[in-house]
Amino acid sequence: MTAIPAAAAVPDANPIATRAGSPGLPRARRWERAGLSLLLIGTAVAYLWHITVNGMGNDFYAAAAWSGARNWKAVLFGSLDPGNFITVDKPPVSQWVMGVSGQLFGFGSASMLAPQALMAVAAVALLYAMVTEATANRAAGLLAGAVLAATPVVALMFRFNNPDAVMVLLMTAGAYCTLRAARQASARWLILAGVALGFAFLAKMLEGLMVLPALALTYLIVAPASARKRLLHLSAAAAALVVSSGWYVLLTVLWPAPARPYLAGSTNNTFMDLVLGYNGFARFLGHNHRGGNRFALPPGYEMPPAAGHTGGGFAGSSGPSPVRLFSGEIGFEISWLLPAALLAFVLVLVSRGRAPRTDPIRAAALAFGLWLIVDGVAFTVMRGGMHAYYTLAIGPAVAGMFAIGVAEMWRRRSAAFGRVGAAALVLTSGLWAFVLLDRNPEWLPPLRWTLAVVSAAAALALVAAAFPGGARRVRAGAVSVLVVSGVLAGIGGSTAYAAATLPQAHTGGSPTVGPAEPAAPDPVNDVRREVTSFVNGEVEPRLSALLRDTSTTWSAAVDRSSVAASLELASHTPVVAIGGFTSDDPVPTLDEFQTMVRTHQVTYYLAQEVRLPDSWRVRGQAEAPAGPGPDNGWWRPAGHQDIAEWVSAHYTAVHIGNVAVYDLTAPACADVPGRACAK
Asked: Are 77 and 84 in contact (CB under 8 A)?
C-alpha cells in the first residue's frame, strides 16, 4: 500500500479531550479558522437574505407573535390573541422568542423570522463543535455544519415561524452538552443537557424529547466513570429536565383558569392532557383530530377523495411505513444523505470496534446514530398529523453522522477498509441524490447525471485503490482527491435543493422544499384550502376595515384558530377563535358565548360561506340552485353548531364577500316584534 506521510494523517489514537484546546484537538490552522468564519457568515447571509419573502409564514403562529408583541401575558402563555382567549396548540417557547422580538423591534415579518435564521447559525456552530471535538478534525466539523445548512428542510424551517426551529436548536444543544459530559463524566454538563431538553419539551412537547433515549444511552455507555456514578449523573440530569419544563406546567395549574387563556388542543384546559393526548400519543395513533368538525358536510353532500398531494406537507396519505422517510415530500426534505448516514453509523461502529469504551468518536456516533434511528422509527410509525417538515428533528443527526463517517474513513484512507468505506458512502449518497432528482426530472436535468457520474467514478476508483495492485498505482494525494470530489458530489443534490428552497415564498401550514411548482387544479383541495385559510388567505378589505372600527375586547368571533389568525393579521384586532385549531376545543360554550355578547366583549360573529361543487352531491340528489341559502349547496363550516345556530336565530347577517357578518351589538332580531332574522 502507498505510504501516507505522518503529517497528512489524523492520529489513530483520539484520547478523550477535557477541553476544546486539549492535545486531542490540534491548534486551528489559518484555513480552518477561515472556513469556520465562512461557514457561519455564509449561513447567516443565506438564511437572512430576503427572509421577508415568506411574509407572515404560518398565519397561525404569526398571529401569536403579533399578540405577544402587544401583550406580555400573551407572550407568557403563547396566546393566539392579545385578549388571551385561547393559546396556540403548542407550548410557548417559540412564541417567547418571536413575541419578545416583536416587543423590542416592533411586530413584522423580519422581527418574527430573523430569530429563526439566527437559530440556524447557532445550530450549525454547535454541530461543528460536536463533530470537531469528537474527531479531533476541524474539517469534519466544517463538513457537518455545511451539510446541516445545506439540508432542504433546514433551509425551509429555519426561515419559517413554526416552533420546530427552536426545538431542534435545543435538541442540538442537549446533544452538545451530553457529548461534553461524556468526555469527562461531568455532572454539570449533563445537567445542562437536561435543561436544554426541558426547554425543547416546552417548544414542542414529546417531539423535543425523542432524542432523550439516544443521549442517555450514549452517556451510560461511554462516560469515564463507574456505573453507579453514571446513573447518578443521569438522575441529576432527569431532575434538571423536570424542573426546567415542570415550572411552566405548574404555572398553568396554579394560575386561575379564568384569568389565563384556554390551553388549545386539550379537552380539559390542562397542559398534561395536551401533552399526552392531542400532541402526544393521539398523534401517533392518528386520533389527534378528534371530531373532524372542519369537514362535516351538510346532508346530501359527500367529499370525494383528494387527488394526490394535499397541502404539500402532510404525510398521512402514504400511511405509516418504513419507506416513509424516503418517499414523497419527506424524501425531498430530509432523505438526501439519510441512507449514507445509516451506512456511516455501521462503518464507524465497525471501525471503532476495538477502541476503549470511552472512545469519543464512537460516543458521537452513538449519539447521532441512535438519535437518527429512534426519531426515524417514530416518524415511520406515526399515524396522524405527520407533516413532512417534522423531519427537521433528525437534520443534525443526519449531518453529524455523515460527517463522522467520512472523517473516520478519511482517517483510515491508507487501508482497504477506509477506501472501500469511503467508496460506499460516496456511491450511496450520489446515487440516492440521482434517485431523488429523477423524481423531479424537469428541474436541472444535467445535475442528477453529473452527480451520479462523479460519485460512481470516485467510488469505483476508491474500490480499485483498495486492492494491492491498485493501491500501488494510486498516490495518497489521488485518494484524497477522490474522497473530496466524491463527497462533494454526494452532497450536491441536497445543496442544490436547499439553494432552490431559500428564495421561494413559503406560507401556510405545510410549506414544501425545492423549486416552485404550479399547483395542479383539484376541486377537492381547492375547497379544503378555502375552508382552512379563509378566502384563500386574503381577507376582504371591507371586512378588515369593519373589524378595525370596533372597540370591544374582541372585534369578532369565528370558528377555527387559522381563520381567526388571518383576520387578526389583516385587521390588527383580537379575534375569538371558537373551538381552537380543529374546531373541537370545548370553548367557548354557548353559555359563555352568550355572556360575552351580553357583556359587550365581542362585536361581530363571522360565518364563512363556501359554495360546494355539484359533483359532491350524493348520487340521486337534484342539482342545487345558485345563491345563498340553507339547502342550495352553500356550506357554513362550523365546529360549534350550537353557537352558529343561536347567532343566526337572533341576529341578521350582512354579506361581505363570502362571509356572513352578524352584528352582535345590535338588538337581537328575534326580540323585535314583527322582525324576522335574515340568516
From this structure: yes
Give me the sign of the Cα torsion angle 19, 21, 26, 28.
Answer: positive
Instruction: Compute how many other C-beta atoms are within 10 angstroms of the C-beta atom of residue 190.
Output: 28
Question: Rounded to an integer, what is the distance from CA 146 to the centroid of its chain?
Answer: 19
CA–CA separation, 215 vs 649, rounded Å?
58
Rounded CA separation 585/589 (Å): 10
- Please tell me the chain's helix, strand, coil percentages from 3-state DSSP, rounded to the nearest 5: 60, 5, 35
Dmax (CA) of the chain:
104
Give the ranges where 439-515 is alpha helix by DSSP (H). 445-466, 468-473, 476-501
Q: Which residues sit opposite 663 in a β-bridge?
A: 604
Neighbours of 421 (CB within 10 A): 27
Per-residue pLDDT at 672: 59
* Number of alpha carbons in the 13 Å side-chain half-sphere of residue 21: 0
Say if residue 46's pLDDT is above 60: yes
pLDDT for the residue 236: 98
Element holding 89 (H helix, E strand)? none
- The residues that bridge with 558 in the sheet, in sequence order, are 577, 606
Position 277 scores a pLDDT of: 76
Mean pLDDT lowest for which of 103-112, 291-300, 324-333, 634-643? Answer: 291-300
How would DSSP label each residue in 352-372? TTTS-TT-HHHHHHHHHHHHH
Q: What is the pLDDT of residue 281?
A: 67
Q: How many residues does the chain have?
A: 679
- The pLDDT value given to residue 22: 47
Copy the grid coordinates of residue 39.
461557514
User: Which helix (H) or strand (E) is 185 found in, with range?
Assistant: none
Whether residue 394 contacts residue 175, with contact meaning beta carbons closer than 8 Å, is answered with no
**CA-CA distance, 66 to 39, in Å (whole number)?**
32
One-letter amino acid of 171: M
Instruction: Output Rg (C-alpha) for the chain, integer angstroms.
Output: 28
- The alpha carbon dihedral of 562, 565, 571, 574 has a sign of positive
Instruction: Please state, in angstroms and rounded to a whole number, the distance separating the CA atoms of residues 8 and 277.
Output: 55
131-141: average pLDDT: 96
Q: Which residues of 299-333 are buried (b: 16+ CB within 10 A; e: fewer)?
A: eebeeeebeebbbbbbbeeeebeeebbbebbbbbb
Strand arrangement of the beta sheet that strand 653-656 belongs to: 575-578, 554-559, 602-608, 659-663, 653-656
More confident residue, 60 or 533: 60
Residue 606: phi, psi to the nearest 5?
A: -115, 135
**Cα–Cα distance, 501 to 511 (Å, whole number):** 10
d(CA 558, CA 604): 9
66's CB contacts (< 8 A; 6+ apart) are: 82, 102, 107, 568, 569, 572
Q: What is the structure's pLDDT at 517?
A: 74
The C-alpha cell at 415 is 487501508
8 Å CB contact between 261 and 87: yes
Give the integer Cα–Cα distance in Å for 399 and 151: 8
DSSP 6: G
Q: What is the pTM of this model?
A: 0.91
Name which of 437-441, 450-454, 503-507, 616-620 the model is least confident about: 616-620
**Cross-strand bridge partners of residue 635:** 610
Judge contact between 346 and 411, C-beta under 8 A.
no
Looking at residues 436-440, what average pLDDT do you find? 96
CA distance 429 to 338: 8
